[in-house]
Amino acid sequence: MPNTTFSPDALPDLKDKVFIVTGGNSGIGYYTVAHLAEHGAHVYMCARNVDKGTEAIARIKKMHPSAHIDLLQMDLKDLTSVVAAAQRFLTLETALHGLVNNAGIMATPFELTQDGHEAQWQTNYLSHWVFTHHLLPLMLTTSKTLPPGSVRIVNLTSSGHLQAPKGGINFDNPALKDAGDMARYGQSKLANILHTKSLHKAYGPGSASATNNEGEIWTSCVHPGLVETNLQEGVNKSNLAMQGVITVLRKTGMFWSSDRGSYNSLYCVAGGEMKAEQSGGYLEIFGRFGEPTCESKPARDGKLAERLEEYTKEEMEKGALIFNAVISFLDLLPLLALLMMNGFMMLIHLILPPPKASAFLTTYWIPGAHAAGLWAEVLDRTTRVYVLVVSLEVSMTVEGKVVTIVEAGFVETLELSR
After folding, report:
1. Which of 54, 88, 280, 384 has most Cβ atoms within 10 angstroms of its Cβ?
2. Are the C-beta atoms of 234 and 106 separated by less than 8 Å?
3. Residues with Cβ < 8 Å from 87, sequence gap 6 or more?
4. 201 touches 335 (CB < 8 A)
5. 3-state secondary structure 134-185
6. What percent of the chain has pLDDT above 70?
């Protein structure tokens, strides 16, 4: 039954709760962040552009001065950026109560990302799958000591999933280069629904995970309906039919505001009225235009959901340490050298007082490694590689340059700047 009375005012006290919202600097995501923070939650806003994210947080804090919001920089068209954002979060928090995979693009011109995937397929689905995958262990751990429904995942989808190609997902050619913009969009949005159902089957109420006290997560895929956001700005300008439909719907007042559009996400990620039987569902709580009765047959296909989950896992595992390249033994040599250097530097820090340790490293170790060309090799080969290491931060001046290694449970960045 549609819940036509829900509004953010009905949200419970969310103090001490932690949430992540992707695409949180504008549109539906912005108001999702704002309302969660207004009710006391600590919210991490994911944004590609740091300046825009910072500005968005400042605007929210003007409305709600006590809002607790942090920024996670993440570019969904770069899978290593997605992994970095997830790992960064895991170094900062010990709990995660809600994840809203909100960011997306619609009907954009054909484009391949630097990872080799079609842009809509990666932005809307693959990157969110990867992001969720890295955060799942923490969410399951968070849920173990809390009542059912305390930890939730929301994937934003769309009735546009009806535009997916015949059969639902083209596993042989997911890029769909020769298909239309909306077919590519529809496939990505269908994938969001199938991902939700896979998560529900694995971790939802009644799952083996929930039954065995290994963690219970409620999931839902939300069709927000016709909402005024910047999503429409990305529509391919050559798609005159779609442009025309959007114009007519705007002029007839069929679009809701971004604020109202966030209500579905808020209900599903934190609303006290949500029921266990709604987990795994395709939801639009207001029932506009008869929604969500238009869920397609492929969207209800459990076998298709299983196949997509297996396909995605295989695709994302192909790169081993990274997702978009094959690492050879030669590529690993500088990593091994880096690990040896890390161990040596940590040993020096343990043996000597901090001032003497820094002096020793500055005088002997760092310059020697740099002179041997090891730093250049490491920087050249490991810029986009993530590997578990000892947590350490070192910043030294070498030959007029600042050499910085920043580590927080993994190699975040290796920077050599003047």
Report:
1. 280
2. yes
3. 134, 386, 408, 409, 410, 412
4. no
5. HHHHHHHHHHCCCCCCCCEEEEECCHHHHHCCCCCCCCCCCCCCCCCHHHHH
6. 67
pLDDT digits (tens, 9 = 90+) for 179-198: 999 999 999 999 999 999 99
State pLDDT tens for residues 270-328.
999 999 999 999 988 776 555 555 789 999 999 999 999 999 999 998 853 333 333 34
- Is 203 catalytic? The answer is no
* Predicted local confidence at residue 288, as pLDDT: 57
403 burial (CB, 10 Å; 0-12 / 13-18 / 19+) is: buried
**Per-residue pLDDT, 243:** 54
- Nearest of 142, 143, 23, 128 to residue 86 by alpha carbon: 128
Give CA separation, 348 vs 344, 357, 399, in Å: 6, 6, 22
CA-CA-CA-CA torsion for 348, 353, 356, 362, nearest 10 degrees? 50
Q: What's the CATH number of domain 8-317, 3.40.50.20, 3.20.20.330, 3.40.50.720, 2.60.120.260?
A: 3.40.50.720
Task: Provide the residue ranges of all domains of the chain, joining segments of one domain with +.
Answer: 8-317, 329-417
Q: What is the rounded distance in angstroms from the CA atom of residue 131 to the CA atom of residue 377?
A: 30
* Residue in this structure with the two tokens 């390249």, named with its chain if needed: 325
Catalytic residue, candidates 189, 197, 201, 203? 189
**From 185, 263, 267, 282, the catalytic residue:** 185
- Number of residues that make up the chain: 418
